[in-house]
Amino acid sequence: xxxxFDEISDQLRKRHRKSSRLKWxxxxxxxxxxxxxxxxxxxxxxxxxxxFQQAQIQVQVDYxxxxxxxxxxxxxxxxxxxVSRGFLRTIPLRMQNDPELLGISRSEWVLAxxxxxxxxxxxxxxxxxDAKARVDxxxxxxxxxxxxxxxxxxxxxxxxxxxxxxxxxxxxxxxxLMVTLAIAFPIGVMTAVYLEEFAPDNRVTQxxxxxxxxxxxxxxxxxxxxxxxxxINFFGVPRSTPLVGGMTLALMTLPVIIISTxxxxxxxxxxxxxxxxxxxxxRWQVVRDHVLPLAMPGIMTGSIIGLAQAxxxxxPLIIVGMVAFIPDVGTSITQAATVLPAQVFTWSGxxxxxxxxxxxxxxxxxxxxxxxxxxxxxTLRKKFERRW
Length: 388
Hints:
The protein is mostly helical and 388 residues long. The chain contains 15 helices and 3 strands. The chain has helices at 5-48, 65-69, 85-97, 114-120, 129-140, 151-154, 167-198, 203-215, 220-234, 242-266, 270-278, 283-311, 315-319, 340-348, 354-384, and strands at 53-63, 104-111, 144-148. It has a 3-stranded antiparallel beta sheet with strand order 2-1-3. Helix 1 crosses helix 15 (354-384). The longest helix is centred in the N-terminal third of the chain and has 44 residues, at 5-48. It starts with a helix and ends with a helix. The mean pLDDT is 88.
């Protein structure tokens, strides 16, 4: 059936209109995604940046005999309810550790109560009118200021928001990822090398490949249930420790490392292998001395991305108990610990409003680390990538 020129032109115009609509819809979706991303980061910054400042108050601390028995006696009654209870509790211990403090009275900048901190930041607080008037007067005298919150980075968790920090969670995260890397990287790389370079192409290896791809897509909470059933209930690994958390995350990271390693191995041209075979190398020598070194940048990139993904996981670690209240910094993979995502999850459930900014501040720190890890992976890939 023949078509006239006008009919063909009309069909072309319709196709161009459809193509243009699809283009604008795609651009609109991209712009909407970018807008949500900007709103997310803006909200996190607005809520989280105040967490990096903490109210401090200048008081006269009296290290007297009475203060060693009753810490409230160490400061004037006028500011007693404005000073953090956490600081007051440390006074007897400080005097015990340093007996020369006994009898000394000196001016110090100390942590203010969490409600004073919220009031100075313009947030809702439970301070009474009299307390607010005293805070305003002290601020006018320069005795109350918002300073950089070193406590947020140097202390562990606390029920008092002015003392809560991410140090114990950060150390727990590092220990957990060390266990994850020590288990997942060698096993994942060796598995990928065997499947790609040595295993025959038969029904068994095909089933293994299908299951590896499926494992990379299942919900992470199932790995937590698996870790609970095998590592804790069967093998008796201590609960809430970086050891069990790292082993659980290693299960989840293994498929990612295996898939990325196989992709990196496939990117090495067969001519490299043929040349090595041509000079008398065995298959293992070909893989060890020629294929693996050339594929290592891709392997490292995939491993870093897998670790970054594991670092952001919360659900499997909740199942194995890594949401415990950890005020002290752990030093061993067998001590109870928590991780940054779990710490953020814990703070988000606290009723005190001051923990809202702690939650957002923890998210900012976590996002910064994740962005750094992904940027490192991209940089390594660009730097060492070889085009054949």
